[in-house]
Predict the structure of Glycosyltransferase family 2 protein.
Amino acid sequence: MRASLRLGRGRVVARDFARLRLDFGTQGLSLDVADLGLGARWVSIAFKDENHGAFSRVELTAIVDGPDGPQGTSLSERAFGHGRFTWLGRLPAGTTALRLTPMLGEPGLSIAEFTVTVQSRLALVGRAALRRPVLTAQALFWRSVGKRVRSQHRLARALVPPGLTAYDTWVRHLDTLSDADRARIAAEVAQWRDPALISVVMPVYNPGVRVLEEALRSVRDQLYPHWELCIADDASTDPAVPRLLARASAEDPRIRVVRRPENGHIAAATNTALGIARGAYVAFMDHDDVLPAHALYEVAKAIRREPDLDLIYSDEDKIDAEGRRFEPHFKGDWNPELLYGQNYLNHLTVVRRSLVEAVGGLRPGFEGSQDHDLLLRLSDRLDPARVRHLPVILYHWRTAIGSGTFSDAFLARAEAARLRALEELVARRGWPHRVERGPLGFNRLVRALPDPAPRVSVVIPTKDRAELLRVVLDGLLNRTDYPDIEVVVVDNGSAEPAAKALLEKASADGRVRVLARPGPFNFSGLSNDGAAAASGPLLLFLNNDIEIAEPGWLTEMASIAVEPAVGAVGAKLSYPDGTLQHGGVVLGVGGVAGHSHPDIGPDDPGYFGRMVIAQEVSAVTGACLMIRREVFDAVGRFDAERLAVAFNDIDLCLRVRKAGYSVIWTPHAALTHHESKSRGKEDTPEKRARFEAEVATMTERWGPELRNDPYYNPNLARAKALFRLW
């Protein structure tokens, strides 16, 4: 293996990896480049990971030695398939190392090539002008007026290579096994001792013979050989089906078939298949779907890494009658709040067999949502630490007409079964909540407030801009139906007569208190002061540019925030034109964090309905954040010293999660946000320096967390949280 540094116009200095210090630590592979003088230079970096073949996902990070120790800046590398990556841009000043980190939880990297080429600025401008002339012209203009940061940003955007642009291209480059991949997997499995037996259970009833043949073949073609296929023929009336099943079982003793005497539908048939399973784990598969060749290998590999796992699930896509793959579902990690609303886990779902048997298997009468019902019952017993999401597509769900999918043909009955499954969960757990049909037919859990309802203390930092504050105060005091509200307005030195008059008038209302806190703007400090002066057990931090859209929003947030396992709650915030501003926060997006689904329209449900269902997220915006006072005090409040303005809400939520609480975003508390009207932009050298210091604080404090948001997916782009590949 070699690393090389190319300088100027083709002049090459080659260096063996042995001469460049390498660290294989818990954060991946680190290449020491301190003596190469790469800081603040435009370079291209190319490398190849041979350890993971087509499925390699690697993060490239530049390490800079700062006053508070090493700090990392993620470089948005481009994947070009089969382990190959490239990056082109300007490295941060003072770069001392380049770090490579596998993003799919794999323990090792095998870098066969690593090339750094120092680029001529003139050549880069020429290349950028050919690709994106408008952006290049903007870069040259900002350079001419001394705005180097803006110039560098636009030049970097103009230089972005085309990369992969469609799902079929992504599949070809990043999700297709090569001969080398197959050989690597076979060699690895051959060395395993005591491999786990995985029982694939398949209910069968009158599928098309061709699609059933394809389903059976996909199991027989598994690169992991330690499986059994347990089939229950649910009294198929097409004589071709039992003939095909008999032939398959005769050809491969791992295929075992039992024929039911009468049709009992999918739940009963699946239970029959479960009854002949012998493996420690069962994988659920429909009679017309397809497993990729590495599916059971990936599952078995996860079990070998973590033998205590109880539930494993993967990403999936759809397949049409011609075998074309489309509509991939790249999922997040375990999210019980989201599971209440939809069965986001299926498919591929693999469960410890003893656990399935302990809850009684699938239940007849829940057809169409029988898997969702099973997962909700399993969730009563699951330890989140023993659930693992594999961010790899391991299941192809057939959508061809005539495939016999129950929930397509009987959607209303499937929705009713899903609703009943959640109602029974609520009853089992003794909750006083109710369940109702939510948007698009998904479940909605409507929590009950304690009686009496706890006081909500709303903390609003503000300065001047009376026209904004007047709207939010009117919404809180006159347009919100919550029974016990206290408003603490923290005035950061208002000087405008209209603002002073409004504050004086508002303070006459017994529900409103005004705290005078003049001085430099410090959102964290102002919010902490407001919380200290508040009297309620529930704290709601609210921007002064929020407009109340409907009366029940605060009840929705408070009913979630009072739950002992919940640490913080966020709301759905939209711009005045109805486009989405905040749908939860995704870590690592844009460097530190970014809002989920930014700017989607008011009628857009988001990625697989994510923006119409309550769910756990990594963080929510401080523009509207509710938290119990006991949790707020226990985790140390907002960081007023190092995160005065930016990222204080993200930092708080991460500390809340580290303390063991969940952070919930709900679309059923909807408000309008006139974002940043009251404070302005980061448009001065002082503000930019402060912002850069806050970025450094977050990367130093939360580097590993920012690299891997559990509720996003490493296959999705991180420039923005648009839930797209690029």
User: Anything to note?
Assistant: The longest strand covers residues 387-398. The CA atoms of residues 36 and 428 lie 63 Å apart. The chain has 21 helices and 33 strands.
